[in-house]
Design brief:
The protein is of the alpha+beta class. Helices cover 48% and strands 15% of the residues. The strands form three sheets. It has a four-stranded mixed beta sheet, covered by helices on one side. β2 and β3 (156-167) form a beta hairpin. It binds flavin-adenine dinucleotide.
């Protein structure tokens, strides 16, 4: 057994026997329902809705959502397993993790009883797809600079603004929209709303043309006086920024999880390639340089997985801090970048051909250093945390 291939659950202390069983279920689903069709979905720029229903039926979605809303009521381990299996196979089209582990928790933690009962069972069975719309054409890292407004109107609010780069934007049925409810109060004037994509005044822009992740839809969204009831407000008025800060560490951690698993998958495939390809009368694997490159990559992946497992332990104990999640995102996504680049080089010219998995892994990896909060912003989060603990103002 090669040390860096996905370690079995026994070698990963936070994981249980049931995680090993679930991993097999997810792996089978990925192999049979996703891998054979992924190239076609890359051409189409989107995965079909029917895949979401199948994933729901197979129990792959929203595993941490309580049983009362149809979920498995599990902890973060099943979510990590599901994401690892998808990332390891290099199939970035279905944005299941964003839907399950990022959007659904906003509904669970801040949604009214009506929102939870209406949407969460549909999130679990895959009949409704979730998205979150924070970013705008003129505000990404600086979320306090968003221009979308939600203005009181009788028994609800009217939301107006433009969002961009929204993952699942073409497919989404329910979107968590970040809007200003009091422009004078900066971060304290931001609120979150759940917008039904069927609402009047809501429109989707085109499916954006990305350099990678071609099977995952990413869109602009337009809200032109969209009316939402009071009950669409998530949590309390003006506390949206606080809720984002509370939920973003999980989003960043899951990006780190995907980065390590994707690096693992790319490495395993490269190991096989260098064992078959010949140059100068020997296998590419037989050059000492190749072994050194592989040794470095394997070591980095091992470190990444160890970090992920340490974060899982902290998550289970309820103390995965914003700083540690940011550290995991920075280190694991930059490690993935180094590993896929090295793997591509070992493929020679074939590594530059899109039909080779390593070429797709290379472009798919790149965005992880940007979305979910860029790695520069992550370094700010880590640095400010260090300074605030030392008593400084952290800037
Ligand atoms: C494929 C994809 C999917 C996405 N999905 C979603 C989604 O589902 N929902 C959503 O809301 N958003 C989504 N995003 C948006 C993503 O989160 C933003 O692109 C990201 O936060 C960066 O914002 P920006 O693009 O406006 O860059 P900017 O904020 O304009 O940043 C430009 C550069 O300046 C740097 N920078 C900015 N501020 C600082 C600072 N204080 N210190 C140092 N450097 C700084 C940045 O790191 C970056 O290098 C997605 C983006 C992509 C590409």
């Amino acid at each position: 057994m090669i040390a860096t291939l996905p370690a079995s659950e026994e070698e990963r202390p936070p994981f249980r026997e049931q995680d090993a069983l679930f991993r097999r279920v997810v792996r089978r689903f990925v192999e049979t329902e996703i891998v054979p069709h992924h190239a076609q979905w890359e051409e189409e720029g989107c995965v079909p809705r029917s895949l979401w229903r199948k994933a729901g039926e197979a129990g792959l979605l929203c595993t941490t959502i309580p049983e009362a809303y149809g979920g498995a009521g599990d902890d973060i381990r099943s979510a990590v397993v599901a994401l690892e299996e998808q990332a390891r196979a290099g199939v970035t089209g279905p944005s299941f993790s964003l839907h399950s582990n990022i959007v659904a928790p906003y509904l669970l933690h801040y949604g009214s009883d009506g929102i939870k009962r209406t949407w969460l069972p549909r999130f679990v069975d895959g009949s409704a797809i979730g998205a979150i719309a924070m970013t705008e054409p003129r505000a990404g890292s600086d979320l306090a600079g968003i221009e979308t407004r939600a203005v009181r109107d009788g028994a609800g609010y009217r939301i107006t603004g433009n969002k961009t780069f929204v993952s699942n934007g073409q497919l989404a049925d329910a979107i968590v929209v970040v809007a200003k409810t009091d422009a004078a109060r900066g971060a304290h004037g931001i609120s979150l709303f759940l917008v039904d994509a069927a609402a009047a005044g809501f429109a989707r822009g085109k499916n954006l043309d990305k350099i990678g992740m071609h099977a995952q839809d990413t869109s602009e969204l337009f809200l032109d006086g969209v009316f939402v009831e009071e009950s669409a407000l998530l949590g309390e008025l003006g506390r949206g920024f606080e809720y984002l800060m509370a939920e973003l560490p999980q989003e960043r951690f899951m990006i780190a999880v995907a980065a390590v698993a994707a690096a693992e998958g790319c490495f395993a495939q490269t190991l096989a390639y260098v064992g078959e390809r010949s140059a100068f009368g020997k296998r590419v694997a037989d050059f000492q340089h190749t072994r050194f490159v592989l040794a470095d990559a394997a070591t980095e992946i091992e470190l990444g997985r160890t970090f992920i497992d340490a974060c899982v332990v902290r998550h289970l104990a309820g103390n995965l801090t914003a700083e540690r999640a940011a550290m995991a995102k920075v280190w694991c996504t930059e490690m993935e970048g180094r590993v896929v680049d090295a793997c591509l080089q070992l493929h020679g010219g074939y590594g530059y051909m899109r039909e080779y998995p390593v070429a797709r892994a290379y472009v798919d990896a790149r965005v992880k250093r940007i979305y979910g909060g860029s790695n520069e912003i992550m370094r700010e989060v880590i640095g400010r945390g260090l300074l605030s603990r030392r008593g400084g103002n952290g800037g």
